[in-house]
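Assess this one:

_____
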Amino acid sequence: MTTKQSGTYFPAGEIDEFLPRIGRVVEIEGRQLAVFRASDGTVFAADNHTPHPKGGPLAEGIVSGHYLYDPLYDWKIDLCTGQVQAPDKGQVEMFPVKIENGQVWIAV
């Protein structure tokens, strides 16, 4: 798991700006993050870059439960850990998220 355990939290937007199961790109501290809100309300933040060797964005992927399906290569990625599921291999960098007073905060 590559979730950062510490860091400064930055505001990413109001929770209502993040539609369930639809990714959104947020730039924080010069980094492009793909932010996803699962249907159960859990919010995840990932580096907006697929671990596939050919590269590409993740924000346009499809969310099902706590999994993301890479939009270009259909790799299944666990949004809790960033781990690509077998038979594929790889890791997506994940970032801590907290929600306070309707505001989404992401640590980088």
